Amino acid sequence: MDLQAFKQKVLPVQGRLFRVAKLFLRNREEAEDTLQEVLMKLWTKRQQLDTYQSVEALAVQMTRNLCLDKLKSHANRTTEDNADLTAVQAAGVSPYQQTELSDTASVLRRIIGELPEPQKLVLHLRDVEEYSFEEIEEVTGLTVNNIRVILSRARQRVRDSYLKTNDYEAGY
C-alpha cells in the first residue's frame, strides 16, 4: 500500500479511532497518544494491509487492544475533561441548564463506564460511531445476533441505572 492508498483508507477513520480511545481512556492526551501509536503501527504494516478485508475494523481492534493494554499497565482512570461543559456554554443555555446537562452527562459517563467491556464497546460502536451490525461483527468477531443481545442488554442496563439514580436522588 502506497502513501495515497494509506491516506484514502486509514486517515478518514482517525476520528472514530480517537473516540474509541477516549471512550476507554477518558483522557484526551492519552487518547491522542494511542491514536498516534495505532497510526504508526498501521503505517509500518502498510504492505500487509491489503490482505485484510476491512482496514477500518483492524484499526478499531488495534485501538481497543492498545487501550486495554494501557489500562491494565497504568491502572489509571483519569477524570474527563470539560469539553462537554464548554460546548454547552457556547450554546447559550442558562447556568442552571448547564449544570443539569453537565450532571446528566457525568452520570451517563459513569454508568456506561461501569458496563462490562463487550457491552461498552458494542454500545459505543453502534450508538456513537453509528456502525452497522456487520461492521461491528468485523471489529468484534461476534455474530450479529450476539451483538443485538449485547446491545439490548447494555441499553437496558444504562436505562435502569439512570432511572434508579434519578429516583434515588429525588428521594423516592
UniProtKB/TrEMBL annotation:
Domain of life where this protein originates: Bacteria
GO biological process: DNA-templated transcription initiation
Coiled-coil region(s): none
SUPFAM superfamilies xrefs: Sigma2 domain of RNA polymerase sigma factors, Sigma3 and sigma4 domains of RNA polymerase sigma factors
Keywords assigned by UniProt, alphabetized: DNA-binding, Sigma factor, Transcription, Transcription regulation
Segments forming domain RNA polymerase sigma factor 70 region 4 type: 108-157
Domain RNA polymerase sigma-70 region stretches: 14-75
UniProt keyword annotation of Transcription present: yes
An MF annotation (GO) of this entry: sigma factor activity
Family: Belongs to the sigma-70 factor family. ECF subfamily.
Name of the protein: Sigma-70 family RNA polymerase sigma factor
Organism: Larkinella rosea
